[in-house]
Design a protein that fits this description.
The structure is a single chain. By secondary structure, the chain is of the alpha/beta class. It has a single domain, classed as TIM Barrel, CATH 3.20.20.70. The protein is built from 11 helices and 8 strands. It has an 8-stranded parallel barrel, surrounded by 5 helices. 42% of the residues are buried. The structure holds phosphoenolpyruvate. The site of phosphoenolpyruvate has 14 residues, from strand 8.
């Protein structure tokens, strides 16, 4: 059975102390699900203390970014080996905030995805169009180009998750309608089927991200091709994150 994935991207929020309190409370209140995985992606400074707390829990740990070299003179960067060593299982690659604020290109993201998987972790590859691109009818063209460029020369597709995150829906309170998200998820699955094969495409986890909250999670998860969500703002409060995790289809 393909499990769904509910992932929380904490962005640049929570000190180590706040993170520890949050995770203790999450573990205490988390139900024992068989059909879904729960992943948290805290800031780098909180990863190690959290890795120690969640050792005997079902929670999974992810990082929000990584560099594509193992070590070297790369001031300010974090290597995949450092992440793997402390128990990180997933790394978000190419989040739209990395693309648009920090200038990450598809080529850089491609190197990151490859390196993450080579190091033994799973990459969450984020793709999605901007508002002006959607309005010009370019959504599929943009998503296709991002997927192809970010996965060029990469064959371990079983080790990745794709997150469709329309930029106009991130942190804006504007969620894509479930059918709008579903049609892009279907498009991505067909594209992966063409590039790789049908089996791989069917097993691929495709997340939706963009203003997911307790009020819209159930509707989103009813869509056949939405295998989970990547949540920003609403994962920072324990009650709303727990309700999102506890979605009902
Ligand atoms: C995100 O950070 O990936 C995200 C989807 O943010 P938000 O849920 O706040 O829109």
């Amino acid at each position: 059975m393909k499990k769904s994935l509910i992932a929380g991207n904490w962005k640049m929020y929570k000190t180590p102390k706040e993170s520890i309190e949050f995770v203790n409370s999450l573990i205490k209140n988390l139900k024992d699900y068989e059909d879904r995985d729960v992943l948290i992606c805290p800031p780098f400074t909180s990863l190690y203390p959290i890795s120690q707390i969640i050792k005997n829990s079902k929670l999974k740990l992810g990082a929000q970014n990584v560099y594509f070299e193992n070590e070297g003179a790369f001031t300010g960067e974090i290597s995949p080996i450092m992440l793997k060593d402390i128990g990180v299982e997933y790394v978000i690659c190419g989040h739209s905030e990395r693309r648009n604020i920090f200038g990450e290109t598809d080529e850089i993201i491609n190197k990151k995805v490859k390196k993450v998987v080579e190091t033994g972790m799973k990459a969450i590859l984020c793709v999605g169009e901007k508002l002006e691109e959607r309005e010009k009818g370019e959504t599929f063209k943009v998503v296709e180009s991002q997927v192809k460029k970010c996965l060029e020369g990469f064959d371990k597709i079983e080790e990745i998750v794709i997150a469709y995150e329309p930029v106009w829906a991130i942190g804006t309170g504007k969620t894509a309608q479930p059918h709008q998200a579903e049609e892009v998820h279907i498009f991505i699955r067909e594209l992966i089927s063409k590039i790789y094969n049908k089996d791989i495409a069917e097993n691929l986890i495709i997340l939706y991200g963009g203003s997911v909250k307790p009020e819209n999670i159930d509707q989103l998860m009813k869509e056949k091709n939405i295998d989970g969500v990547l949540v920003g703002g609403a994962c920072l409060k324990i009650d709303s994150f727990l309700r999102i995790i506890d979605y009902r289809r």
